[in-house]
Specification:
78% helix, elongated, mainly alpha
Length: 77
C-alpha cells in the first residue's frame, strides 16, 4: 500500500468518526428542541452541523486535500 493510499484511508476513517459525531449532535439537539428539554441546543447545532459537513467531505475522500498533500503546486513542476 502506497503512502497516498494509506493517507486516503486515514482521511476516510476520520471522516467516518466526524460524521457519526455530527449526526449524534444534530439529532440530539433536534430532539431536545422538539421536546423542549434543558440543554445547550443551539451550541450543539453550531458544532454539529459543521462537524457533519466536514465529516461527509472527508468521507468522500477530500479530493482537494489529497491533491494538496500529494501533487503539490502546479508551478513547481
Amino acid at each position: 500500500m502506497k503512502a497516498s493510499e494509506l493517507f486516503g484511508v486515514v482521511v476516510r476513517g476520520i471522516g467516518l468518526i466526524m460524521t457519526i459525531c455530527g449526526i449524534w449532535q444534530v439529532s440530539f439537539a433536534t430532539l431536545e428542541l422538539a421536546l423542549g428539554g434543558p440543554g445547550n441546543r443551539i451550541e450543539m447545532l453550531l458544532y454539529g452541523i459543521p462537524t457533519l459537513l466536514v465529516g461527509l467531505w472527508f468521507l468522500r475522500g477530500a479530493k482537494s486535500l489529497m491533491l494538496f498533500a500529494y501533487n503539490g503546486p502546479e508551478d513547481s513542476r
